[in-house]
Specification:
Shape: globular
CATH superfamily: 5'-nuclease
CATH topology: Rossmann fold
Number of helices: 7
CATH class: Alpha Beta
Strand order of the largest sheet: 3-2-1-4-5
């Protein structure tokens, strides 16, 4: 299965957090799955770091090599992905999450998330709890 991690799950996976739901952990550990992360997630993280939020502490310089070590595949943002956002119903307002969904749809990858609002997009999203 091809899967695209939302930004929160990406950060939890990189940190080896205990907060990763069991179902997500099983997907991440299965060698049968192709695990992708989006360049849009890195962009979102960089923006939050630039805002110097006290509740957000990520070492971006260490994150990228860690993702490569975990054999996660980088999914660049393309013009086709960006254009795909226009066809999404206005269920979710977060532009980064909408981009991730558009990418998943374009690349036949299920977006894995813990976000209930994203799950309302249907079978393109896998809600893990």
């Amino acid at each position: 299965m091809r899967v695209l991690l939302d930004t929160q799950l990406l950060l939890w996976a990189a940190a080896k957090s205990r907060r990763i739901p069991k179902q997500a952990r099983q997907i991440l550990e299965s060698r049968a799955n192709e695990i992708y992360f989006s360049a849009a997630s890195i962009w979102e993280i960089a923006i939050k770091l630039a805002l110097r939020r006290r509740d957000f502490d990520v070492d971006l310089e260490r994150l990228r090599p860690a993702l490569a070590e975990m054999e996660f595949l980088e999914l660049p943002v393309t013009a086709a992905h960006a254009a795909g956002v226009v066809s999404l119903p206005a269920i979710h307002k977060d532009p980064f999450d909408r981009m991730l969904l558009a990418q998943g749809l374009a690349e036949a990858a299920r977006l894995i998330t813990t976000d209930l609002a994203l799950a309302r997009y249907g079978s393109a999203v896998l809600l893990v709890e």
